[in-house]
Amino acid sequence: MSTNAIILLILAYFGVLILISYFTGKSSGNTAFFKANKQSPWYVVAFGMIGASLSGVTFISVPGWIEASQFSYMQVVLGYIIGYLVIGTVLLPLYYRLNLTSIYTYLETRFGDYTYKTGASFFLISRIIGASFRLFLVANVLQIILFDDLGVSFWQTVTITVLLIWLYTFKSGIKTIVWTDTLQTLFMLIAVGVGIYFVSDSLNIEGGNILTFVLDSDLSKVFFFEDYKSANYFWKQFISGAFIAIVMTGLDQDMMQKNLTCRSLKDAQKNMFWFTIVLTVVNFVFLSLGLLLTIYAQQNGIDAHKDDLFPILAKNHLGATVFVFFLLGLIAAAYSSADSALTSLTTSFSIDILDIEKKYSEEKQVAIRKKIHIAISVVLILVIVAFKYIIQDESVIQKLFVFAGYTYGPLLGLYAFGLFTKWNVKDKMVPIIAILSPILSYIISVNSLKWFGFEFGFFILILNGFLTFLGLILIRRQ
User: Fold this and answer.
1) In whole angstroms, what is the distance from residue 55 CA to residue 252 CA?
2) What does the pLDDT read at residue 251?
3) Which of 335, 416, 403, 420 is nearest to 55 (CA)?
4) Helix (H/G/I), strand (E/B), else coil: 52
5) What would the DSSP string read from start to end of 98-125?
6) Are 96 and 257 in contact (CB under 8 A)?
7) Would you report the helix, strand and coil content of the chain in percent, each value rounded to 5?
8) Model pTM score
9) Number of H helices, E strands in the chain
């Protein structure tokens, strides 16, 4: 595929997003930016959340897991169902009853200002690192397939990338994103469907037999009950999946901000119900694509594994059509996550850290929010460029992304303590507990195999939340 064709494809893609932002961005007030005027159709929110949940990391990585892990990831996905049930029946009613813009405002009501700022700060750190890592992966792909040939440096690629996101979100924020995410989810699912069609055709599998082929393969084993010490052990992944869903969706401003744009609690709960069903199916489809790609590579002697599997096959072996849709799907998956991250970071910093709703008039709030939106964009650019030029070591960057996951543990402990106990805490001590818990969790995780003969895997989130909960008990008010 020629350089000019790739440029035209990207420009056309973003042209559509900017057009959507034009039609949805006629209102630039904070109510539109933060809450979409609470007028979002629940089915649009549910569909758009699929893309935001999966991200570019999932688009590239999940198909590459099959060779080493088979379909074990479905154990985590099945756990998600329990987590989303808790979100729909416990957390959403709480958020709607309190009429929250930022979900971390609950922590102020329940515990106090220090706890409130701590929860919001942990979200901000986690989201900045997570969003930057996802955009770093996509910017790297664009750099390799396009911008290197044009003589454009990496920092310029990143700046252009973030600028394009800012361009279609700066006016109406979440109101625009609800609709752009829907389009981006559609592109992503079409990309996966096209990939399955062409790979199965290359393997001489008729359309009606694809599911049978996948289920009959040894690579499609889902349940692992044999070794409780293994990271793939069913109960470990299933329970972890439930808690991951609760924390990374239900306690995440990014994901919950979309839910809070629905007209009513009932609509938000319908959104979560259908989102759960569709996301479960979509993850199975991603794994099925990975199985077909793995078998195709093995049969044709192609040296492509893990994160390289889908990109290498799409670019070099499956034809121009698959590569076009791979590129569209990758950009869609990455940007549907990144644009909502930019908006949620702006929302959280404006409301949770600067308290603009309490301190300023509506007009002043809008002016401050616009400046914060620009500032957050600059921060994302700087962090992504740091990944490339300062850190460089890819394994270190991967560890930073994992570290961002550790910051959700304190949120799990704080909300669990707030919802399931009536105790209060010494508010000023909470930041100390929230910092110590991830550090202790990391030390235990690193040494767990040596100390206990046990790998925590995804279970580390639960340990982190449990240590936070215990710490809060120690500092409770008598």
Assistant:
1) 15
2) 92
3) 335
4) helix
5) HT-SSTTHHHHHHT-HHHHHHHHHHHHH
6) no
7) 80, 0, 15
8) 0.86
9) 22, 0
